[in-house]
Amino acid sequence: MEPLLTIKDLTAGFATDNGAVKAIDRVSLSIGKGQTLCLVGESGSGKSVTSLAIMRLLEFAGGRILEGSIRLAGNELTDQTQRQMIRIRGNQMAMIFQEPMSALNPVFTVGDQIAESIRLHQRKRKSEAKQMAVDLLRMVGIPDPETRARQYPHELSGGMCQRVVIAIALACRPELLIADEPTTALDVTVQAQLLDLLQQLQRELGMSMLLITHDMGVAARMADQIAVMYAGVVVETGSVEALFDQPAHPYTVGLMQSVPSMEGERLSELRTIQGHVPSLHALPAGCRFHPRCPHAMPRCTSEAPPMMTVGTLQQAACWLYGDVAAGFAGAPDSDNGEAGG
Ligand SMILES: Nc1ncnc2c1ncn2[C@@H]1O[C@H](COP(=O)(O)OP(=O)(O)O)[C@@H](O)[C@H]1O
Ligand SMILES: [Mg+2]
């Protein structure tokens, strides 16, 4: 079966004072129907740019898609006009962001805001939309939804506001929900409740989800598939089991051993890996990770490794797996193609 979302060689970037930069470079991903793909990586690795590109919202953030394909349910999104995208965003995909407060309008009641977004995309009478808003509030686990619907965002806690944001996103029954660090701004208990809610709603509605997180604990809990990004490129993909059992890329290994800090978006220093994500203006030649890699070889400094199969349904862009995967000369007289898996 064709995946719901297939991204191929997606390249996107920004014009800056110091010249054009590619924030993501030939990113390829896919998400099956009803599946969750977690996109992980340190701050600055290109996760948000990827999600904004998929939504075709990158233009509004000053960026641009330069190359590649984004297919959603058979539709090529890079070919759509913004007018067509409004329809697609209202019907097939929706996005929630990290900061619930900034996503809500402080001067309207939460009920009115949900009803308004329903009426934007569906032909409903006002009273009907209001009732649907209450039902949606109930669906996202807000107690006494009739009363809550009449309240303003500032009367609700951060966790409640994020539930409202989720209700708005789900109003159009999207096939794909993109959630960019949806719980990062919230405390741990509320975070856990919201993740449970997302998982439950996903099952009920049969949605696919692209969940962006820098927290490997969240990824372990939520993901079917994981894609690891580093400095604008995908360095490893695979099932959650494969990645946690046998992380292949040295960067993934480092991520697994790192602990998210309490200060929100930023990962604490990777315990086992020195250094920082490079600036887009000074990307290293070859593998972008080689300056920080404990296994770097001469080849890594000059040749960018392509994605290579390292196990069942697991791929890594790393020369450690090059010889095995491609059966290149240099693999010591091995006729066992499975050696890496
Ligand atoms: N509006 C912008 N103008 C220029 N560069 C940007 C802009 N937004 C993001 N970037 C750059 O793109 C890269 C990826 O950013 P982002 O996708 O936000 O990372 P992540 O979400 O993984 O933390 C970063 O180097 C960031 O500085
Ligand atoms: Mg981000």
What structural class is derived from the secondary structure elements?
alpha/beta
The bound ligands are: adenosine-5'-diphosphate, magnesium ion
The portion of residues forming beta strands comes to 15-25%
pLDDT averaged over residues: 89
Any low-confidence stretches, pLDDT <50, length ≥5? 261-269, 325-341
Largest sheet: 8 strands, mixed
Determine the number of helices (DSSP H or I, runs of at least 4 residues): 12
Tell me the number of strands. Answer: 12
**Looking across the biggest beta sheet, what order are the strands in?**
6-7-8-3-9-10-12-11
Helix and strand sequence: EEEHEEHEHHHHHEHEHEEHHEEH
Question: What is the helical fraction, as a range of percent?
Answer: 25-40%
Rg, Å, rounded: 21 Å
Oligomer: single chain
Report the span from N to C terminus: 25 Å
Q: What would you say this structure looks like, in words?
A:
The protein has an 8-stranded mixed sheet, with helices on both faces. A 4-stranded antiparallel sheet has the order 2-1-4-5, with helices on one face. Helix content is 32%, strand content 22%. The model is unreliable at 261-269 and 325-341 (pLDDT under 50). The chain has a domain at 100-173. α4 (110-121) crosses α5 (126-139), α5 crosses α7 and α7 (158-170) runs parallel beside α8 (188-205). The two termini are 25 Å apart. With 341 residues, it is α/β, with parallel strands linked by helices. Bound molecules: adenosine-5'-diphosphate and magnesium ion. Adenosine-5'-diphosphate (ADP) binds next to β1 and α1. Residues 47-48, 180 line the site of magnesium ion.
